[in-house]
């Protein structure tokens, strides 16, 4: 398995992501600078990590979404290649039109940096096959703009087509506005594109992959991807 | 030529920043403010004197970058 990790100015989780991919998926990893116009040969997975690309100027992810490398990512996704965006990466994928909707300022206005409980709604995707459907995992969030929004038609499609993959819930998996910390519509923490090969999520699974981190609930995502490509 | 692109949140889109500003104005004791919506203003210098061309370029700029049309509206004005 070969992963290409995109690096934009202001991104800061690329090394965490590379470590998680190597450790849990046995993946080779390459850092790909935003000015590149092609992905490395044999890329299986493209990852847009978290951070603050371009200082969140204009809108979170807006400027990175127009970087030269994103044309290569669009072409890769159009051929069915797997793309994962985490946090700022999710925001960039929405701004690039690879995922619908937008991530707005958290409803409570505060930057939220703590563990979230998210329910894995489906286990039949390459990104979630390392989990069981309905399983609740504890994964950190660190964002000021994670409040997912889209027009009602889009939301109905996401829900109807089973493309809401992760939802914020209470630790026991029950829906609760109190645990939907950023105010996202339908408590959306992660979604798939219509073809099922592009996933965006706000929480950081790469930061819960080793005992030292206090929790290893994020491993399943990377191990699942490793399994997908080994299968 | 000088132009201005104004980007505002669409009606019905929650604006927590505007709400916070509204609250701060109230706490300052400034009367007569019913509500606040926050937006963005881009002042742009456009070379040449072709008004139609400038408007077309700025419309494209707004559509492709300055505004996220999922949640925002925009307005282009030539201001002189």
TrEMBL record, chain A:
Record localization: Cytoplasm
Matching SMART domains: GATase_5
Residues annotated as catalytic: 87, 204, 206
PROSITE patterns assigned: GATASE_TYPE_1
Location, primary (coarse class): cytoplasm
Enzyme Commission number(s) from the entry: 6.3.5.3, 3.5.1.2
Pfam families: GATase_5 (PF13507)
InterPro entries: Class_I_gatase-like, PRibForGlyAmidine_synth_PurQ
Source domain of life: Bacteria
Function: Part of the phosphoribosylformylglycinamidine synthase complex involved in the purines biosynthetic pathway. Catalyzes the ATP-dependent conversion of formylglycinamide ribonucleotide (FGAR) and glutamine to yield formylglycinamidine ribonucleotide (FGAM) and glutamate. The FGAM synthase complex is composed of three subunits. PurQ produces an ammonia molecule by converting glutamine to glutamate. PurL transfers the ammonia molecule to FGAR to form FGAM in an ATP-dependent manner.
NCBIfam families: FGAM_synth_I, PRK03619.1
HAMAP family reported for this sequence: PurQ
Protein name: Phosphoribosylformylglycinamidine synthase subunit PurQ
Species per Swiss-Prot/TrEMBL record: Rhodoplanes tepidamans
Gene that encodes the chain: purQ
From TrEMBL, chain B:
InterPro entries associated with the record: PurS (IPR003850), PurS-like_sf (IPR036604)
Highest taxon, organism lineage: Bacteria
Example GO molecular function: phosphoribosylformylglycinamidine synthase activity
Keywords, alphabetical: ATP-binding, Cytoplasm, Ligase, Nucleotide-binding, Purine biosynthesis
EC number: 6.3.5.3
Catalytic activity: N(2)-formyl-N(1)-(5-phospho-beta-D-ribosyl)glycinamide + L-glutamine + ATP + H2O = 2-formamido-N(1)-(5-O-phospho-beta-D-ribosyl)acetamidine + L-glutamate + ADP + phosphate + H(+)
Function summary: Part of the phosphoribosylformylglycinamidine synthase complex involved in the purines biosynthetic pathway. Catalyzes the ATP-dependent conversion of formylglycinamide ribonucleotide (FGAR) and glutamine to yield formylglycinamidine ribonucleotide (FGAM) and glutamate. The FGAM synthase complex is composed of three subunits. PurQ produces an ammonia molecule by converting glutamine to glutamate. PurL transfers the ammonia molecule to FGAR to form FGAM in an ATP-dependent manner.
Record-given protein name: Phosphoribosylformylglycinamidine synthase subunit PurS
UniProt organism field: Rhodoplanes tepidamans (Rhodoplanes cryptolactis)
């Amino acid at each position: 398995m070969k992963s290409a990790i995109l690096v934009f100015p202001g991104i800061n989780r690329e090394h965490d992501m590379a470590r998680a991919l190597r450790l849990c998926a046995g993946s080779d990893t390459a850092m790909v600078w935003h000015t590149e116009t092609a992905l490395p040969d044999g890329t299986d997975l493209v990852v847009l990590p978290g951070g603050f690309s371009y200082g969140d100027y204009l809108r979170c992810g807006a400027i990175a979404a127009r970087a030269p490398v994103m044309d290569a990512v669009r072409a890769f996704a159009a051929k069915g290649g797997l793309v994962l965006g985490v946090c700022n990466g999710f925001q960039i994928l929405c701004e690039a039109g690879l995922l619908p909707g937008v991530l707005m300022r958290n409803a409570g206005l505060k930057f939220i940096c703590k563990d979230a409980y998210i329910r894995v709604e489906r286990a039949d995707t390459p990104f979630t096959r390392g989990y069981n459907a309905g399983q609740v995992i504890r994964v950190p969030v660190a964002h000021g703009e994670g409040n997912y929004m889209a027009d009602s038609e889009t939301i109905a499609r996401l829900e109807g087509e089973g493309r809401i993959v992760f939802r914020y819930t209470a630790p026991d998996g029950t829906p609760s506005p109190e645990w939907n910390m950023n105010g996202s519509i339908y408590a959306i923490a992660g979604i798939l594109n219509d073809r099922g090969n592009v996933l965006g999520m706000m929480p950081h699974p790469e930061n819960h992959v080793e005992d030292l981190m206090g929790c290893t609930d994020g491993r399943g995502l990377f191990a699942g991807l490793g399994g997908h490509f080994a299968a | 030529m000088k132009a201005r692109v104004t980007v505002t949140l669409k009606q019905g889109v929650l604006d927590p920043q505007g709400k916070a500003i509204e609250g701060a104005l109230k706490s300052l004791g400034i009367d007569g403010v019913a509500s606040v919506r926050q937006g963005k203003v881009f002042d742009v210098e456009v070379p040449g004197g072709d008004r139609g061309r400038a408007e077309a370029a700025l419309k494209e700029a707004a559509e492709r970058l300055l505004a996220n049309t999922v949640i925002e509206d925009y307005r282009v004005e030539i201001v002189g």
